[in-house]
């Protein structure tokens, strides 16, 4: 079964929409900015900004509130199921269907000053090269001299950690659930994560490459909220995997947990969270710039920052 057949394992429903919106604010507090300062200072007053894998559109909507009204924002996702309603969106924000796994229409090429990508890791299945192909597709949207910002969580290193200042009686079920999801995705869909973000960017011809690495536990008061979000994502994905395996009469044949096991371990994970155990993973924010070249001549602003 290919990742293309099953692109978003966490699910699309009102509960997930709420989780995504909540996740936005928590991740933003961890990172401490919406747009990296090195990009923000270089945007023009009529900047066009795109968001890839926009989900609900919450990132675009929040950026629009702190940006000049002359900016325009476009969000792309392969499903409109979780889009915020038009009434909830700022007037200069629009959301539309667009699949980053496929080439974007030629009429969109060279349109945007900034392309943001955020948290598409769960869909990045299909083996080595999927990140490179996605980046190639997305870069067609940028104007010469335009910027890309990619925000991604490395869930391959996600584990449950006990709180400081004392021993908790257990810390294994959070980790067990994460590893089960990871290993199932790897086995079934050849899931992977870039070994080097800077190399990924430079190999694509980007300049001004910079990686900002932060941890989800850098704001201690958010650790429980991060863990609640993680439990929702991990065990939501495991439940969807269990349902698909059962429907295809593959339950128990490919290492997928049945729903009963998912709920049993989830209950233990919640108990761990109540005892102070928390999920922790790394957040990679990688920025780069498309070469600003017109007939071989560097355009204004293409200088090293």
UniProtKB/TrEMBL annotation:
Question: Methyltransferase domain: from which residue to which, for each copy?
Answer: 49-146
InterPro entries (alphabetical): Methyltransf_25, SAM-dependent_MTases_sf
Q: Which Gene3D superfamilies does the record associate with it?
A: Vaccinia Virus protein VP39
**One Pfam family in the UniProt entry:** Methyltransf_25
CDD domains for this protein: AdoMet_MTases (cd02440)
Domain of life assignment: Eukaryota
Q: What is this protein called?
A: Methyltransferase domain-containing protein
> Per the UniProt entry, what species is this protein from, by scientific name?
Delitschia confertaspora ATCC 74209
